[in-house]
């Protein structure tokens, strides 16, 4: 299959489930949050990825401004990867709250799995702001940042669109940014296995998290 065909296949597959991207505005996104995800035929709630995709081979910075090689740093444990920004009004806090709450409920800890948040808003998301934001959910969530061009390389490697400025935030906090709305799950070898679109609830994660630890 050609590279273009692979990309088209992935775009079509993800678009069917509404997980390519979503704008950070309640009128476009939050309608999914109350429904949760339907169980897949194999019992998982996350949607399987049938194409070969790996943790992107890019170097980002952590909140101490130390380089982190995304493609190798998180090998050895399963990884949940999410692109977002700290001013996001709905997608980001709902995903992060659901994951962190479900981890506590089912006894999955950060010694067994990495949760990685990559900012798509370098102009506002300083390392300090990222740390403060993630502390609302769990201080062991890894926050990463870089120039938007580097973040764009990571997104492109996963066939995901770059961030889009959607206009002023009605809360008066700068601009709203449209960004990929799914959490991507990678196994301990760095291979993408499943995605959880916006709308995944804590109950979905309590089903899938133990399987991530046991099977990935």
End-to-end span in angstroms?
27 Å
Taken together, the total number of domains comes to: 1
Radius of gyration: 16 Å
Characterize the overall form.
Answer: globular
CATH superfamily: Glutaredoxin
Q: Give the percentage of residues in beta strands.
A: 15-25%
Strand order, largest beta sheet: 1-10-9-4-5-6-2-3
Largest sheet: 8 strands, mixed
User: Unreliable segments (pLDDT under 50, ≥5 consecutive)?
Assistant: 1-34
Specify the CATH architecture: 3-Layer(aba) Sandwich
Mean pLDDT: 83
Assigned CATH class: Alpha Beta
Number of strands: 10
Share of residues in helices: 25-40%
Count, helices: 7
Q: What is the CATH third-level topology name?
A: Glutaredoxin
Element string (H = helix, E = strand): HHEEEHEHEHEHEEEEH
Can you characterise this structure?
The protein is an alpha+beta fold and 216 residues long. The chain has a single domain (3-215), classed as Glutaredoxin (3-Layer(aba) Sandwich). Helices cover 32% and strands 20% of the residues. The chain contains seven helices and ten strands. The chain has helices spanning 3-16, 26-29, 70-73, 91-106, 127-134, 148-157, 202-215; strands at residues 47-48, 59-62, 67-69, 79-84, 114-119, 142-145, 164-168, 175-178, 183-186, 192-196. It has an eight-stranded mixed beta sheet. β7 (164-168) and β8 (175-178) form a beta hairpin. α4 (91-106) crosses α7 (202-215). The longest helix has 16 residues, at 91-106. The protein starts with a helix and ends with a helix. The model is unreliable at 1-34 (pLDDT under 50).
């Amino acid at each position: 299959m050609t590279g273009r065909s692979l990309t088209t296949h992935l775009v079509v597959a993800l678009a069917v489930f509404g997980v390519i991207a979503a704008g950070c505005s309640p009128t476009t996104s939050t309608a999914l949050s109350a429904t949760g995800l339907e169980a897949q035929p194999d019992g998982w709630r996350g949607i399987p990825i049938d194409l070969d995709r790996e943790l992107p081979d890019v170097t980002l910075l952590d909140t101490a401004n130390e380089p982190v090689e995304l493609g190798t740093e998180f090998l050895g444990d399963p990884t949940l990867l999410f692109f977002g920004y700290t001013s996001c009004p709905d997608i980001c806090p709902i995903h992060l709250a659901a994951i962190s709450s479900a981890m506590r409920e089912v006894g999955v800890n950060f010694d067994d799995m990495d949760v990685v948040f990559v900012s798509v808003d370098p102009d506002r998301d300083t390392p300090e702001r990222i740390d403060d934001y993630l502390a609302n959910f769990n201080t062991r969530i890894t926050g990463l940042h870089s120039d938007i061009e580097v973040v764009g390389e990571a997104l492109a490697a996963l066939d995901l669109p770059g961030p889009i400025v959607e206009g002023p935030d009605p809360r008066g906090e700068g601009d709203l940014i449209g960004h990929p709305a799914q959490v991507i799950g990678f196994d301990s070898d760095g291979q993408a296995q499943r995605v959880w679109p916006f709308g995944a609830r804590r109950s979905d994660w309590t089903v899938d998290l133990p399987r991530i630890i046991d099977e990935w």
